[in-house]
């Protein structure tokens, strides 16, 4: 079956791998969106011939307009955050794959859902910052929210047996441990940006790679799992699986456990989200068990990696606390990548903002953005 797909964040790591899957499955592309990488976006336009594109950055949108002028069959160009939301809601696509990085993806997720589009979600921040808004919208509009993160896809795949799924008792959320697994706080005092960007197993964008190094990514994924699968945080256990071969596991009431295994290749969960409920051949390589010498398991060190502890606090507080944690982290990671704060300061700032208020209660989309801004302001105020 041919599908028409809109890819938001098409020039990023997940976006380009999504286009690998689309190419392999011979799907068509309805829309593409990027923040500012116009050069790559235009190459994608030439290959996939989308009906519409969106460019968020103003200067980049101006450049795209110049390059598209006079091009035969040029796509419609939308601009800014409003253009991203408009593209997400536009009739013509069967599914919207949201691979935008950060809270910037939330409004587009909601826009797609409210327009009746199914969403393949790689933007975990949509659920972290606006979990109740997203899940309420999914129910009200009767659409599918299909996880793209490898861990949540693994859990989703393990729950396809509807009879067993009813007795789900525990989620075992696996983590690679990042580049600094086993190090003490003392050993992390002077690590550099380059050190933190050397992930042992995955090739990802800089922000998510830093999040993996701090274990913030696992904290965000824990919050996301709570919203996606309906278990309390106490029934989501983070397990370090260094080889990134077991992508997550589920435990049922009889204590039997199912796991999803595969090579560390994001095209597997991307494809499953796009082809669900079918499984078809794809571009990812096969896992060769004869070359797999060991699978190891360990405990995540929350005392050293405070981001994970902060996220557990945040989902426990509820309300906008996860949004505050995410906003503080996005700002702190930006400062770290700019060389303005040390590595360990990221966790201190995220935990500090979570501890700063109660955050409970219902909220609106405007409240989410206000909380995000306040969390970023907190970080800047606490950086010397």
From TrEMBL:
Q: Its GO biological process terms? A: isopentenyl diphosphate biosynthetic process, methylerythritol 4-phosphate pathway involved in terpenoid biosynthetic process
1-deoxy-D-xylulose 5-phosphate reductoisomerase C-terminal domain spans which residues?
Answer: 145-229
Q: Which SUPFAM superfamilies match?
A: 1-deoxy-D-xylulose-5-phosphate reductoisomerase, C-terminal domain, Glyceraldehyde-3-phosphate dehydrogenase-like, C-terminal domain, NAD(P)-binding Rossmann-fold domains
Q: In which pathway does it act?
A: Isoprenoid biosynthesis; isopentenyl diphosphate biosynthesis via DXP pathway; isopentenyl diphosphate from 1-deoxy-D-xylulose 5-phosphate: step 1/6
The enzyme's E.C. designation: 1.1.1.267
Listed cofactors: Mg(2+); Mn(2+)
Per UniProt, residues of the 1-deoxy-D-xylulose 5-phosphate reductoisomerase N-terminal domain are: 5-131
Q: Which InterPro entries match?
A: DXP_reductoisomerase, DXP_reductoisomerase_C, DXP_reductoisomerase_N, DXPR_C, DXPR_C_sf, NAD(P)-bd_dom_sf
Question: What Gene3D superfamilies does its record include?
Answer: 1.10.1740.10, NAD(P)-binding Rossmann-like Domain
Which of this chain's residues are annotated to bind NADPH? 11-14, 37, 123, 125, 205
What UniProt keywords are attached to this protein's entry? Isomerase, Isoprene biosynthesis, Magnesium, Manganese, Metal-binding, NADP, Oxidoreductase
**What Pfam families would the database entry show?**
DXP_redisom_C, DXP_reductoisom, DXPR_C
Residues noted as binding Mn(2+) in the record, renumbered to the chain: 149, 151, 221
| GO function term, MF aspect, one | isomerase activity
Recorded catalytic reaction(s): these are: 2-C-methyl-D-erythritol 4-phosphate + NADP(+) = 1-deoxy-D-xylulose 5-phosphate + NADPH + H(+)
Where would I find the DXP reductoisomerase C-terminal domain in this sequence?
261-377
Residues annotated to bind 1-deoxy-D-xylulose 5-phosphate: 124, 150-151, 176, 199, 212, 217-218, 221
What job does the chain carry out?
Catalyzes the NADPH-dependent rearrangement and reduction of 1-deoxy-D-xylulose-5-phosphate (DXP) to 2-C-methyl-D-erythritol 4-phosphate (MEP).
Membership in a protein family: Belongs to the DXR family.
The cross-references to PANTHER family, in alphabetical order and at most eight, read:
1-DEOXY-D-XYLULOSE 5-PHOSPHATE REDUCTOISOMERASE, 1-DEOXY-D-XYLULOSE 5-PHOSPHATE REDUCTOISOMERASE, CHLOROPLASTIC
Know the name of this protein? Answer: 1-deoxy-D-xylulose 5-phosphate reductoisomerase
Organism of this sequence: Ruthenibacterium lactatiformans
